[in-house]
Write a structure and sequence with these properties.
PBP family phospholipid-binding protein; Phosphatidylethanolamine-binding Protein; single chain; 8% helix; globular; mainly beta; PEBP; PEBP-like_sf; YbhB_YbcL/LppC-like
Length: 150
């Protein structure tokens, strides 16, 4: 796997790593803008995942799965759920579900992953189904991390 070219950044994650309140579930629940570059040759599509490994559950908590993003897309904005195929999140809904860590649990890290895939994803699998079914199709992956605390 190539791990040097694919990049993901966000102007909505501060220099200190903080994710703004407007991205939280109890606020505007707006996904951050994500900028993607260095997509490797042979990419059929991109997938986006937001995952909180600090959630107090065994496998962490999935806040977003997004499929069907064309390989030439360089920016994903707040309208991403209506432009691409939004999958299920840990709240039992489809689309972006922003940070909502337990009060007093401390800061949580929100990993926004981009996956460059050699084949298109069918449907809208859960994160575990996606990784199980498409792990062999990942050409490259990278992430940007935001921090949020209630």
């Amino acid at each position: 796997m190539n791990i040097k070219d694919l990049r993901i950044t966000s102007p909505d994650i501060g220099a200190d790593g903080r994710l703004g309140d407007r991205h939280a579930l109890e606020q505007d629940n707006q996904p951050p803008t994500l900028r993607i570059s260095g997509v490797p040759e042979g990419t059929a599509e991109l997938a986006i995942v937001c995952h909180d490994p600090d959630a107090p559950v065994p496998w962490g908590f999935t806040h977003w799965t997004l499929y069907g993003v064309p390989a030439d897309v360089t920016e994903i904005g707040p309208d991403a759920d209506s432009r691409y195929r939004a999958g299920s999140n840990g709240f039992g809904k489809e689309g972006y579900g922003g940070p909502r860590p337990p009060e007093g649990h401390g800061p949580h890290r929100y990993y926004f992953w981009v996956y460059a895939l050699s084949r298109a994803v069918d449907g809208t699998p859960s994160l575990r189904q996606f990784l199980d079914s498409y792990g062999d199709a990942i050409i490259e992956q990278n992430r940007v991390v935001g921090i949020y605390e209630r």
